[in-house]
Amino acid sequence: MSKPPLPEQAVALLSRPNPCVMATVRSDGAPVSTATWYLWDDGRVLVNLDEGRVRLKHLRRDPRVTLTVLDGDNWYTHLTLIGRVTELRDDEGLADIDRLARHYTGKPYPDRDRPRVSAWIEVERWHGWGAMKDNSQAGT
């Protein structure tokens, strides 16, 4: 696995609104994965969670997280980002979820009734596959 910074080609992939799966760690140590929106922002990743979601509880207890971002045009090409949540903050005015929604849909987030929390993820390691394959990985 490689350490940041990521190469330009990887940053270009992460900058697009691609499908993403986020894995957190349950209290019993089991991993849990959930599809999510993400936003690459200057070397960090923003995700946003409904305040009542269980995965937010997971992150508050154990900040380790993995994101797998699939190239929307070719899912064989993907990047996995391994890191930890270094900042959790209330999403005042739903500004961050609106950023994510606009990135994916072009519109503000429609559900304005529930509080949300923004989580900022620092990437510690990464690996890629397909067109993003890291040269240090074994060949197939």
Structure description:
- The protein is α+β, with helices and mostly antiparallel strands and 140 residues long.
- Helix content is 19%, strand content 39%.
- It has helices at residues 8-14, 54-61, 95-105; strands spanning 20-25, 31-35, 39-41, 44-50, 64-70, 78-90, 116-129.
- It has a 7-stranded antiparallel β-sheet with strand order 2-1-5-6-7-4-3, sandwiched between helices.
- It starts with 7 loop residues before the first helix and ends in an 11-residue tail after the last strand.
- The relative contact order is 0.25.
Multimeric state: single chain
- Indicate the percent of residues in helices: 10-25%
* Net shape: globular
- Terminal Cα span: 16 Å
The major β-sheet equals: 7 strands, antiparallel
Percent of sequence in beta strands: 35-45%
Average pLDDT figure: 95
Low-confidence stretches: none
Structural class: alpha+beta
The count of strands amounts to: 7
Order of helices and strands: HEEEEHEEHE
How do the strands line up in the largest sheet? 2-1-5-6-7-4-3
* CA radius of gyration: 15 Å
User: Can you count the helices?
Assistant: 3
Q: Keywords for this structure?
A:
alpha+beta; seven-stranded antiparallel sheet; 3 helices; single chain; 140 residues
Summarize the structure.
By secondary structure, the chain is α+β, with helices and mostly antiparallel strands. The chain has helices at 8-14, 54-61, 95-105, and strands at 20-25, 31-35, 39-41, 44-50, 64-70, 78-90, 116-129.
